């Protein structure tokens, strides 16, 4: 089946008169032979005018203009006439140029600032950049060249030189582009390999970056030599010589604009749908959006804003009333600009605060796209006291200063999760501070993919969920339990982390570096950070390492942790990097998430909306003590533009702790410097200090009272409590309200750095994969306890299980010798009505080691099996433990349909119709549980007649990891293939349909009359 995204994009392009973007005039004719390239010749003239230098080479002329000590521009006009199509659209005024000097030598001119020297060799003209100490930065392998289509620079490539940038490159960008060719330009390809939101900028590990000042498409081949070209008859590039990638990004964004600071509600999740004239949902009205907003409130879920007209042909009405209703629910009104922004003034006055730009704002060219972003942003600011906030699907250099870059119309699949991970982290290398995609896409999707996708996107600065194109609405509360509770937990985790994320948002306005970062940006000297070892993970700020689950699995392999101490956010287990973690236990509610030792993370605890904060609300610090560390909190009113006039405050937390092992910890909270509307003059503070060892005392202007329980801690106005069972041991501290205008210190005496007094002696709990339990049936759960560098004694293992389950405690293990593992089996009986599928269990082991009482905890998944069949059963009537499908959901007793359940047609093979069976689309995998009760599987298989002869697939039956039967290649024209497979003793059976020709077009594979013979 052809992708409906592709159909839709082409249709939209045609409507907008954009077909030429894809094909161009006369595309059916043979391409004319490309003219031979001309390379610039010998220097025939030289002149200097302050910081601007001219070099003539026959009819061509080059111009070098210094912008700062480390930034300069090279232009080449092949015909001697300079032009600048971008004008002042992208490059901002930079102030007075630096002092420069020049020197002529026999073979070259040397053009210098205090930091760099650009050599211009004479015969032929060729450029080479050196630092002030003489070290080489880059060198042209040959002079600039041009042909009838493009201008090209050719650079020598360093032996270990790595390259990054080029904007949003789908599926790429957070690891090196070395040996790859990347395209920079609008392509409307929002799939893996596409390049929406391209940026004509790249940077090198050699310490430089290049920005092509153009609206023309670019191609960068990072081969040997490196060739970078733009489709225009002029050359215009800015060069940045920096002290590492962050410095280069900073220089580039100083030239083209620092990222904007979103309003706080813009960093909460957004919601988009069409409420007026919605063809997929029936007739509704704009005010119906308030019912959805009520759903967020009723389910205690954060939501910052709602687009109420997100759909082609969707209008809007009652804007002011809708905006007021949303504001009453703690949300803001957004509109999609499908019909342009000519009315934005009136819309903003009615309450609009978010503008999402349509692909129409790209159609007439990159300038049009950039102008759309700037004009919509300005429209919000000119007509309200709010900050401009826009979303754009295709943009260009400069858009980072006015909008979020959004990766387009995508599907809710595991593969989309996979390739989006490097996409957004990689875009940060081009100064794009806010890049994102819809949670679970806008097509297809499932409860599992939605939940997994939402988890990691809470660690992006911005994101939204979108309805209207999928078969059912995609709010985070639509799938029921356990998904609703898991989604709520992650939405509220993001809400609590807003002070951390907002501080990084402010930092980006100064440095140009976004919060979402590839590992190589933080660890440039780590040889694995630039490779595939780190491709499917990213840093969220400097303190969180996020490694999303992108397969239908309850574990994650290949998590690379760079140098340092890393703490599992959920268990408190410590890892020493560099190391690779395999078999990480990740049940559905667990995002693999690690915190860097030394982190001090500011948090807003227990809120649904930033507007829940009051003058009495506490500020919490989540601290992972190791050595000396600090974090500076940034605060303002979160909504208006007063911060641009200096109305903001900063407060610094400094932590002094042992590097490892025993010692005191001092947390110093400085005075809050600055002021803004709504600033707290006094507030209570909370601290969670991950020590692993109980302190002897906690002091704040004298000893704070030690509290004996969680209940006592919750009701006390101030005091501390050591929660031994929380993630290996956490000291919880709360204070009475304190003045924000005065610094104070909290001292924890006789405790330890993160990991405990003897971190190497810490025991580890794990659980074997693939454990199964039957609903209402007594069984056992195995838990492994592994001792560290010292013997473990008195180890007692307990389980936290779902409500209604029964657990019989296991016997205490007297001793586990150092370095060995002891398996403990705990008797467990699931509830009779336990839902088949994954159930999360948490194992907690209490033990003694090295004279200290410790705990260790681990989440893991056990599979609850349905009752196995006891009589002959249709495959479509069984519970499906797993159901993955190439397009839309697999169908019961229907052919494969579109993106919704039960939208297929009657199963038909070779003219015969079937009342029972499974309709799928390659690649497909249906898993059922037989429990060893069945002996045979029979079916008729083939490609459904509705495809009219297309498609090419193979069918297979697998049981308990073994392939029992595979069909020959089946096409749409093949005869029906009978299936009769012996499945005697099989517990788990997989029915698979696999594409065999790579096209996945028309691969509607039917398991007609699919039946198990059981007893």
Automatic annotation (TrEMBL):
Signal sequence bounds: 1-30
SMART domains for this protein: NPCBM (SM00776)
Keyword Lipid metabolism: no
Domain Glycosyl hydrolase family 98 putative carbohydrate-binding module, residue spans: 869-1014
Superkingdom field: Bacteria
Keywords carried by this UniProt record: Glycosidase, Hydrolase, Signal
InterPro entries xrefs: A-galactase_NEW3, DUF5110, Gal_mutarotase_sf_dom, Galactose-bd-like_sf, GH, Glyco_hyd_98_carb-bd, Glyco_hydro_31_C, Glyco_hydro_31_TIM
Family, as annotated: Belongs to the glycosyl hydrolase 31 family.
Name under which the protein is recorded: NPCBM/NEW2 domain-containing protein
Lineage of the species this protein comes from: Bacteria, Bacillati, Actinomycetota, Actinomycetes, Kitasatosporales
């Amino acid at each position: 089946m052809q992708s409906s995204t592709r159909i839709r994009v082409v249709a939209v392009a045609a409507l907008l008169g954009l077909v030429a973007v894809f094909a161009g005039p006369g595309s059916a004719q043979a391409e004319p032979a490309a003219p031979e390239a001309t390379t610039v010749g010998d220097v025939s003239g030289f002149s200097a005018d302050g910081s601007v230098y001219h070099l003539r080479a026959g009819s061509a002329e080059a111009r070098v203009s210094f912008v700062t000590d480390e930034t300069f521009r090279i232009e080449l006009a092949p015909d001697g006439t300079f032009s600048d199509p971008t004008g002042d659209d992208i490059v901002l005024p930079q102030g007075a140029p630096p002092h420069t000097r020049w020197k002529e030598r026999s073979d070259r001119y040397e053009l210098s600032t205090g930091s760099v020297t650009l050599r211009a060799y004479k015969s032929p003209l060729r450029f080479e950049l050196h630092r002030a100490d003489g070290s080489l930065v880059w060198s042209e392998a040959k002079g600039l060249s041009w042909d009838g289509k493009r201008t090209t620079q050719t650079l020598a490539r360093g032996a270990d030189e790595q390259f990054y940038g080029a904007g949003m490159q789908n599926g790429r960008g957070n690891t090196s582009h070395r040996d790859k060719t990347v395209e920079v330009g609008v392509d409307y390809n929002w799939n893996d390999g596409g390049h929406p939101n391209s940026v004509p900028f790249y940077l090198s590990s050699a310490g430089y970056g290049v920005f092509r000042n153009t609206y023309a498409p670019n191609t960068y081949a990072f081969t040997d030599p490196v060739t970078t070209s733009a489709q225009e008859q002029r050359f215009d590039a800015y060069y940045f010589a920096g002290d590492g990638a962050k410095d280069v990004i900073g220089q580039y964004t100083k030239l083209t604009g620092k990222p904007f600071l979103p309003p706080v509600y813009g960093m909460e999740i957004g919601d988009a749908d069409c409420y007026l004239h919605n063809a997929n949902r029936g007739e509704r009205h704009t005010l119906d959006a308030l019912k959805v907003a009520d759903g967020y409130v009723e389910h205690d879920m954060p939501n910052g804003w709602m687009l109420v007209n997100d759909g082609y042909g969707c209008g809007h009405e009652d804007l002011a009333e809708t905006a007021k209703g949303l504001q009453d629910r703690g949300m803001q009104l957004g509109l999609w600009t499908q019909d342009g922004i000519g009315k934005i003034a009136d819309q903003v006055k009615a309450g609009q605060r978010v503008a999402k730009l349509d692909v129409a704002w790209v159609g007439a060219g990159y300038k049009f796209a950039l102008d759309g972003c700037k004009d919509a942003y300005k429209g919000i600011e000119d007509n309200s006291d709010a900050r401009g906030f826009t979303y754009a699907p295709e943009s260009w250099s400069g858009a980072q200063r006015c909008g979020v870059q959004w990766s387009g119309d995508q599907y809710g699949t595991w593969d989309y999760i996979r390739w989006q991970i490097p996409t957004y982290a990689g875009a940060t290398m081009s100064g794009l501070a806010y890049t994102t995609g819809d949670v679970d896409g806008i097509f297809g999707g499932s409860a599992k993919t939605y939940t997994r996708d939402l988890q990691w996107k809470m660690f992006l600065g911005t994101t939204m969920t979108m309805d209207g194109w999928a078969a059912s609405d995609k709010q985070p509360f639509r799938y029921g339990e356990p998904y609703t509770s898991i989604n709520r937990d992650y939405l509220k985790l993001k809400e609590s982390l807003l002070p951390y994320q907002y501080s990084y948002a402010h930092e980006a306005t100064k440095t140009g570096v976004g919060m979402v970062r590839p590992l190589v940006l933080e660890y440039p000297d780590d040889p694995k950070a630039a490779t595939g070892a780190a491709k499917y993970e990213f840093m969220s700020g400097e303190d969180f390492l996020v490694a999303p689950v992108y397969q239908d699995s309850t574990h994650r392999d290949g998590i690379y942790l760079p140098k340092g101490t890393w703490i599992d956010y959920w268990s408190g287990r410590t890892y020493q990097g560099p190391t690779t973690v395999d078999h990480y236990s990740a049940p559905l509610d667990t995002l693999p998430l690690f915190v860097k030792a030394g982190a001090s993370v500011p948090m807003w605890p227990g809120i649904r909306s930033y507007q829940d904060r009051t003058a009495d609300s506490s500020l919490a610090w989540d601290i992972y003590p190791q050595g000396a560390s600090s974090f500076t909190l940034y605060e303002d009113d979160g909504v208006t533009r007063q911060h641009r006039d200096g109305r903001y405050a900063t407060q610094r937390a400094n932590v002094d702790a042992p590097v490892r092992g025993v010692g005191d910890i001092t947390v110093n909270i400085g005075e809050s410097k600055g002021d803004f509307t709504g600033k707290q003059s006094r507030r209570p503070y909370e601290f969670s200090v991950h020590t692993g060892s109980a302190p002897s005392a906690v002091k704040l202007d004298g000893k704070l009272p030690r509290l004996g329980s969680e209940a006592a801690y919750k009701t006390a106005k101030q005091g501390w409590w050591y929660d031994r069972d929380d993630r290996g041991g956490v000291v919880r501290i709360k204070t009475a309200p304190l003045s924000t205008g005065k610094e104070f210190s909290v001292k924890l005496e006789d405790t330890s750095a993160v990991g405990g007094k003897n971190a190497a002696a810490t025991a580890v709990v794990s659980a074997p994969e693939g454990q199964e339990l039957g609903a209402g049936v007594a069984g056992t759960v195995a838990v492994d306890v592994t001792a560290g560098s010292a013997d473990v004694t008195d180890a007692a293992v307990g389980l936290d299980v779902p409500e209604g389950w029964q657990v019989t405690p296991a016997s205490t293990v007297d001793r586990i010798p150092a370095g060995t593992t002891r398996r403990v089996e705990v008797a467990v009986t699931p509830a009779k009505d336990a839902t088949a599928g994954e159930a999360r269990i948490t194992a907690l082991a209490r033990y003694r080691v090295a004279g200290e009482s410790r705990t260790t905890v681990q989440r893991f998944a056990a599979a609850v099996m349905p009752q196995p069949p006891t009589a002959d059963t249709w495959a479509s009537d069984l519970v499906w433990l797993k159901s993955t499908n190439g397009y839309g959901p697999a169908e019961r007793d229907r052919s494969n349909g579109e993106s919704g359940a039960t939208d297929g047609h009657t199963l038909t093979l070779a003219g015969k119709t079937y009342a029972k069976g499974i309709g799928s689309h390659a690649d497909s995998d249906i898993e059922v549980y037989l429990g060893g009760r069945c002996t045979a599987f029979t079916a008729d298989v083939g490609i459904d007649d509705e495809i009219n002869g297309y498609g090419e697939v193979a069918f297979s039956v697998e049981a308990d990891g073994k392939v029992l039967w595979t069909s020959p290649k089946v096409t749409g024209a093949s005869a029906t293939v009978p299936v009769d497979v012996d499945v005697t003793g099989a517990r788990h059976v997989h029915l698979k349909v696999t594409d065999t020709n790579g096209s996945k077009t028309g691969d509607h594979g039917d398991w007609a009359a699919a039946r198990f013979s059981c007893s």
